[in-house]
């Protein structure tokens, strides 16, 4: 009869240890992904002056855009930064990944190619490692 209780205690102890050895860790970080532009940021819009900055000035400072509207008057620059790295572990398995933020800087120009306005959009996404 004693061995039955011993097995129950061993099993309970094993489950308790497994529960203590599982967990989740999130590490805040802030760096560009390997495929991301590094010459564009939210601060890029600060050097643009409505009615003064030309589309050519923008091309010289920021390079070719990632998207262009059909009429060519609006362009978009995108970049991506890793904001957190996550790790999950448990008995016999583990996983890891990143939480990324994708930024889009939209710029619109008038018919003469002069800067009119900007728009910054942000969205979160995640990737397994």
Would you spell out the secondary-structure blueprint of this structure?
Elements: H1 2-20, E1 23-32, H2 55-62, E2 67-68, E3 74-90, E4 93-109, E5 115-128
Antiparallel strand pairs: 1-3, 2-3, 3-4, 4-5
How many strand units?
Answer: 5
Number of helices: 2
Rounded to an integer, what's the Rg over CA atoms? 26 Å
Question: Helicity level, as a percent range?
Answer: 10-25%
Oligomer: single chain
C-alpha termini separation: 49 Å
Q: How would you sum up the global shape? A: rod-shaped
Biggest pleated-sheet summary:
5 strands, antiparallel
Assign the structural class, choosing from mainly alpha, mainly beta, alpha/beta, alpha+beta, or little secondary structure: alpha+beta
Mean pLDDT: 87
Order of helices and strands: HEHEEEE
Low-confidence stretches are none
Structural notes for this entry:
There is one protein chain. With 129 residues, the chain is an alpha+beta fold. Helices cover 21% and strands 47% of the residues. It is built from two helices and five strands. The protein has helices at residues 2-20, 55-62, and strands at 23-32, 67-68, 74-90, 93-109, 115-128. Strands 1, 2, 3, 4 and 5 form a five-stranded antiparallel sheet that branches. The longest helix has 19 residues, at 2-20. The radius of gyration is 26 Å and the shape is rod-shaped. The two termini are 49 Å apart. The relative contact order is 0.21.
Considering the chains and any ligands shown, give keywords for the structure:
single chain; 129 residues; alpha+beta; 5-stranded antiparallel beta sheet; 5 strands
């Amino acid at each position: 009869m004693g061995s039955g209780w011993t097995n129950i205690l061993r099993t309970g102890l094993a489950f308790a240890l497994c529960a203590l050895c599982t967990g989740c860790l999130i590490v805040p970080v802030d760096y560009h992904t390997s495929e991301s532009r590094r010459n564009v940021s939210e601060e890029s819009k600060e050097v643009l002056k409505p009615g003064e900055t030309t589309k050519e000035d923008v091309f010289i400072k920021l390079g070719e855009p990632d998207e262009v509207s059909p009429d060519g008057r609006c362009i978009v620059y995108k970049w991506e930064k890793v904001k957190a790295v996550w790790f999950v572990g448990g008995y016999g398995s583990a996983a890891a990944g990143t939480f990324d933020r994708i930024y889009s800087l939209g710029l619109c120009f008038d018919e003469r190619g002069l800067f009119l306005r900007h728009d910054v959009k942000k969205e979160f996404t995640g990737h397994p490692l």
